[in-house]
Amino acid sequence: MEQRKDGKVCYEDEIDLYELLLILKRKLKIIVFLTFIGTSLGLLIAFLSPNIYLATAKLNVEVNSPELIKISINEAMKNAENMVNKPAFILPINNNNNNNNNNIVTVLNSYSFKLKVCQKLKEDLLKSPSRIDIKCDDDYVNKFFSAEIDNKTGIINMKSEQKDRLLAKRILEISLAELKKEIKRISLSSFKNENVLNLVVLEDPVYMDNPIKPKRLLIIIVSFISSLMLGVFSAFLMEWFENVRKQK
After folding, report:
1. pLDDT tens for residues 72-85?
2. Of 27, 31, 72, 114, which has fewest CB within 10 angstroms of its CB?
3. What is the pTM of this model?
4. Residue 197 belongs to what H/E stretch?
5. Tens digits of per-residue pLDDT, 15-38?
6. Distance CA 73, CA 69 (A)
């Protein structure tokens, strides 16, 4: 316990708010400087980052001939092996549309299918007037697009995030076209020439006019708050070092 000049009693473990405010006032330049630097970096990141656009599509897989599902999977795979034009994938098909959708999502998210779509897109772009050439390397292919099951509705949601909104839409269009070919080829060739599966496109590929990334306002706010907190922390740290030097 200590006696202050104004006569008030101050305990050693008591936090003096007035003293803390004085520290912040003495180190105000440091706080402002660090806040300015951090916010400026946030502004640079926010406005130099390229816009990313989102394209989406919704689809569902339906079974046209449930009685044909009784054919064993082994028999279907055996028939597929004897085909001249072998399908890229063998899909286990059953009466449950949710299971069929899960199998389709597995195919869509597979590297081999994405690579096939990328190669098809590359051919299309080279034929276009702009003759844009893309590299179908592992990193680009894996981020090409994604597919997932909606837990509430059970339908398949596809999305592609690209710097070009038209490119994102075109990726999904090619993906759907290639998926239709694979499903038709498998069902017609493996299941007694019957079209077992039917791919229903509930929502054609569409893109958003506004970019989904970067979240510029969020980046600026976070950078300001983070740099401000860093400035305050640095002010108290410098004050602590100065007090240690004085005590020595």
Report:
1. 344 444 544 554 44
2. 72
3. 0.72
4. strand 197-207
5. 678 888 888 888 999 999 999 999
6. 9
